[in-house]
UniProtKB/TrEMBL annotation:
Protein name: Nucleoside-specific channel-forming protein Tsx
Domain of life of the source: Bacteria
Keywords (A to Z) from UniProt: Signal
Signal peptide: 1-21
Pfam families: Channel_Tsx (PF03502)
Family designation: Belongs to the nucleoside-specific channel-forming outer membrane porin (Tsx) (TC 1.B.10) family.
One annotated Gene Ontology cellular component of this protein: cell outer membrane
Organism: Aquitalea aquatica
C-alpha cells in the first residue's frame, strides 16, 4: 500500500517533467504545517499537524491535469492515537476540452479525492463539466458535477448529491517581487442523509485561499487560510492557517 502511494506521488512529478513539449507544466515538493484555530480544536478535537506534499500539473490545447499527494504526520506511526497518526491524501483533477463556445472552452471535468489512515478511509469522485475564464491576469476555472462517495468503513458507496466549485489564480508583481493569489472552493449540495450524520444540513463548504511569494525560480513560500463548514466530519465552521515552503523543479 505504501509503495503504491509513493509510486502515485512520483508519477505526478514525472508526468509534469516529461511534458516539456506541451504549453505548460510544473512540479514541486513542499513542507507544510496546518494550525487549526482554537475554536476548531475545542469543537472538534482536531490536532495541528505537519505534512509533506508532492504536487504537479500539465496543460495544453487538450485541457489540463493536476494532482497532489500528501503525507500527513510523516514522523508518526500509522496507528497513533489522539490525532497523532500518519495519514495519506491524494487528489487528481482532469479537465478535457470537448468544444468551444466563442472563446470559452466546454470541458469534461473529473476529480478523485482520497484520504485514509488508521482505520479511516473516504473517497470522493466527481464527474461533470467545467470551463476556463480569463480576465487580464485573473484565471477562473469553475466546475459542476455529480458526486459519488465511497466510505469503506461506515456507510459504503453511492451517489451523494452534487458538487460545484472553482479554482482561482491571480499572479502579480509588487515591491519588485513575484506573488500569486490562489483559491479553491467546493460546495456540496443535495447530499444524502446517510453520508451526513454529523452535519446540520445537506450543504457543505470546503476550500482555502492563499498568498504565495515566489522568492526565486526554485523557492516559493506562502500562507493559506483553510476553511470548511458542514465538512471534514464536523457540523461546525472550521478554520486553520497553513504555512508552506515549496521547492520548484
Amino acid at each position: 500500500m505504501k509503495a503504491r502511494k509513493l509510486l502515485l506521488a512520483l508519477s505526478l512529478l514525472g508526468s509534469a517533467s516529461l511534458a516539456q513539449a506541451d504549453n505548460w507544466s510544473f512540479a514541486n515538493v513542499s513542507a507544510n504545517y496546518l494550525d487549526w484555530s482554537g475554536r476548531t480544536t475545542d469543537q472538534s478535537g482536531k490536532k495541528d499537524f505537519g505534512y509533506l506534499e508532492a504536487e504537479g500539473g500539465i496543460g495544453g490545447s487538450w485541457g489540463d491535469v493536476y494532482g497532489f499527494f500528501d503525507l500527513e504526520n510523516p514522523g508518526k506511526s500509522d496507528y497513533g492515537t489522539n490525532g497523532y497518526d500518519r495519514r495519506y491524501t491524494t487528489k487528481a483533477i482532469g479537465r478535457f476540452n470537448l468544444t468551444q463556445v466563442g472563446n470559452v472552452p466546454v470541458q469534461l471535468y473529473a476529480h478523485i479525492y482520497d484520504t485514509r489512515g488508521n482505520g479511516f478511509f473516504t473517497q470522493n469522485r466527481v464527474l461533470g463539466v467545467s470551463t476556463e475564464l480569463k480576465y487580464g491576469n485573473l484565471t477562473l476555472k469553475p466546475f459542476i458535477g455529480a458526486h459519488d462517495e465511497l466510505d469503506a468503513f461506515s456507510v459504503g458507496s453511492g451517489f451523494n448529491g452534487w458538487m460545484a466549485g472553482y479554482v482561482l489564480l491571480y499572479p502579480f508583481n509588487a515591491f519588485g517581487q513575484s506573488f500569486l493569489v490562489t483559491q479553491w472552493h467546493e460546495t456540496e449540495f443535495a447530499r444524502k442523509q446517510e453520508f451526513t450524520p454529523n452535519y446540520k444540513h445537506n450543504t457543505g463548504e470546503n476550500g482555502a485561499i492563499a498568498l504565495w511569494w515566489n522568492v526565486s525560480k526554485h523557492f516559493t513560500t506562502g500562507v493559506q487560510y483553510r476553511y470548511a463548514d458542514q465538512k471534514l466530519g464536523s457540523g461546525e465552521y472550521q478554520n486553520a492557517v497553513i504555512y508552506s515552503a515549496k521547492y520548484n523543479f
